[in-house]
Every structure is written in C-alpha cells, then in structure tokens.
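Quick one, T. Sequence first:
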Amino acid sequence: MRRLVALFALVALGLGLLAAPAGAATAVPERTQLRGHLPELGERAVMRVFQSQTAYDAFRTSLGEANVFPPSSSLFMSFDKDILALYARGNDSGGRCLRAGSNATLDGDTTTLDLQWESGTCGAPLSAHYPFVLVSLSRTAADGSSWVAPARSVCASAPGVSESRACASLGTSAVSPSPPTTAASPSAAATAASSPSPSRTAAATAAAPTATPSPVPSPTRSAVAVASPTMLVHSCGGASGARRRGDHIGA
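Structure tokens:
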C-alpha cells in the first residue's frame, strides 16, 4: 500500500514538472541614465543598443548640434559591466516623459525594458513630444548568469501605446523599426534630463528660428547641466560658445 502511495506521489510530481514552463523569465538590473525629448531621434519608435564606448561615442558624434548625450565617463555605468539601450518613442501626444524601472525581463532570447510614464516634460518646453530614455542594463542577470549574446535582442515599448514596440539585436546592433529621414522642423526642440541620482541632473534644449522674418536675433542652442550640488555649468551658442559660471554655487 505504501509503495502504491509513493508511486502515485512520483507520478503527480512528474506531471507537475511537465506542466511547469520550460524557462522562467529572469530579471536584469536596469537603471535610467538620461531622459528627455529629442525630435532628431525620429518620428517612429526605435531602439538602439551600445555595447562599447566607441559605439556610443560614434552615435553622439553623428547627432551633431543635436547631441544632448553626455560622454560615457559622466554616466552612472561602465561598459565592462553594463550595456546601454536607447529607446525613443517618436512622435507622442506630449506632456509626459519616460523612465525605467529597476529590472528588465529576460525571457528566452529577448530582454524587455520596464518603462513607465511620468507626467511633465523633463525640463523641456510644454510643447515637447518626442520622449526618449537612455537605460543601462547590467551584463549580469539577477541569477548571476551572463545574458549578453549575439543571438539575443533588447526590446521596449511605451506603456499603453500601440505600435510602439521596437527592438535591437545584440548581434548586429540593428534597430527596428528604423525612423524615417525627416527635415528639421522649425519648432524642433530637444531636451534631456538625467535622473539616476538625486545629486545629478542634466537638461538640454534646442530651438530653431521661425520661418517668418523677424528683427529679433535667431535663438541658439543652449544647455544647462548641474553636475553636483556645488557646481553649475552653463553653455550657449552651440559647441563653440561654451562658458562656465558659478563654479561653486550652493553650500
């Protein structure tokens, strides 16, 4: 009788194992590095991944005057331990910006960012409606495994927005879908704000002159960054017009 009970127990255990999923999702630590609005990233949702400083710096350089991304040395990550994922929502309804949670999810060969909406424009003008978020992903998953491999992809979507999912392969760093090439809009504006630490924020704005003639001088790109509670760095007039002031503001 006892043998019969033990046999039934083993059969029940085997059926339970067969019913269990083949592989449970694994958490991958993620962290917001930069967020804001930037029309130059495209009209449609797009994902980019950077596995090295060289790739990240090349992307920054390609943006020209629209570059609002800090050098990797100013980010709260290192490429030997992390990779970067840049998700841009594209043309959005406005009045909100994106931020990442604490963990992405690795399921099979796909790692999906955990993104959330926040009200406001991250320091951009109220009319800004091209949100993006730059997120670092640990190369080591929560279970201690190394998940970064050429066969895998990183994906993200804007919560509650249909057709906003975009992915990038870790094997080719290809982006999908690709944003269409568009001419610069007269009202284009760009802004970025970093939020991984309460003591460090960054914001950048850009505006182009209106199409109608005006005696008022054309506005120029400007950037404001607070690198620490005791330093304020202000630059205006593009890359060649940098100026520092208030090097020791605050307590």
